[in-house]
Amino acid sequence: MPHHRGCLRLLAAFCLTFLFLTFTASYKPVIVVHGLFDSPSDFQLLLNFINETHPGTNVSVVDLFDRTESLKSLWMQVEGFRQAIYPIMQNAVDGVHLYCYSQGGLICRALLSTMPDHNVDTFISLSSPQMGQYGDTKYLKWLFPHYMKSNLYRLCYTQLGQDISICNYWNDPHHRDLYLNNSNFLAVLNDERFHPNASAWKRNLLRIRKLILIGGPDDGVIMPWESSMFAFYDVNETVKDMTSQPVYLLDTFGLKTLDARGDIVFCKMANVSHTNWHSNRTVYDTCIDKWLT
């Protein structure tokens, strides 16, 4: 009888181990792309959250374009991140989740648009200026001490300016023509400026299953903060929501299609400053946890 009990305990332990390994192996890998002036060390709390709620998840915080290197042109960064994350995607037979913070959200959207064989399930855009940036912030004043939002277009909409990441998504509502003619990143990504790959890029983006848009009114850096929800200023600096934007109405890159599919999720959180989005447990529990399947 003791022998049988020992065998049963061994069998039970084996079954529990098998179930644990099966359960943890079921989580898709998470790829994290950081924002302006960040590095992987800034995401330790996020890693702790994921390890606690989704044990065994393979999380890769891509260590590229850290700190001041994040000022390099976004197309250069897109290419670097593509080379880094493509092998992770290839090894994930069930797909991956893409978690992208601030400037990283634009890098990720460009990655998704330009990768015909990506296998991203959920794209989490965390406080990212998806429709561009237009506002005087401490970052702007540090980077460009001789410019204010009203005259930064004089630098950003030049060939030299377009080599600086923040100028790649500078969207001045008072100089729309200059933006359309000179923005070689955001205007192209949005298909507001003609390029021959627009249809293919739209198909590529629409391969995702869900788009999670996270932001809030106390961000303090993304201006308007609603840019994180694909809303933006009109010429009077009145914020118009996503469904009023020409890129939505014309469905230039797939936004309206995603919305019609019911695959855009908005998560608005108050009392969160820009640098705290990825370390705030309430944000994680409310807006992110449920999507890391």
TrEMBL record:
InterPro entries xref list: AB_hydrolase_fold
Keyword rRNA-binding: no
SUPFAM superfamilies attached to this UniProt entry: alpha/beta-Hydrolases
Identification of the protein by name: palmitoyl-CoA hydrolase
The UniProt record lists the keyword DNA damage: no
EC number: 3.1.2.2
Catalytic reaction(s) noted: S-hexadecanoyl-N-acetylcysteamine + H2O = N-acetylcysteamine + hexadecanoate + H(+)
Function of the molecule: Catalyzes the cleavage of thioester bonds from S-palmitoyl-CoA or S-palmitoyl-N-acetylcysteamine (unbranched structures) but does not have activity against palmitoylcysteine or palmitoylated proteins, branched structures or bulky head groups. Conversely, hydrolyzes both long and short chain fatty acyl-CoA substrate.
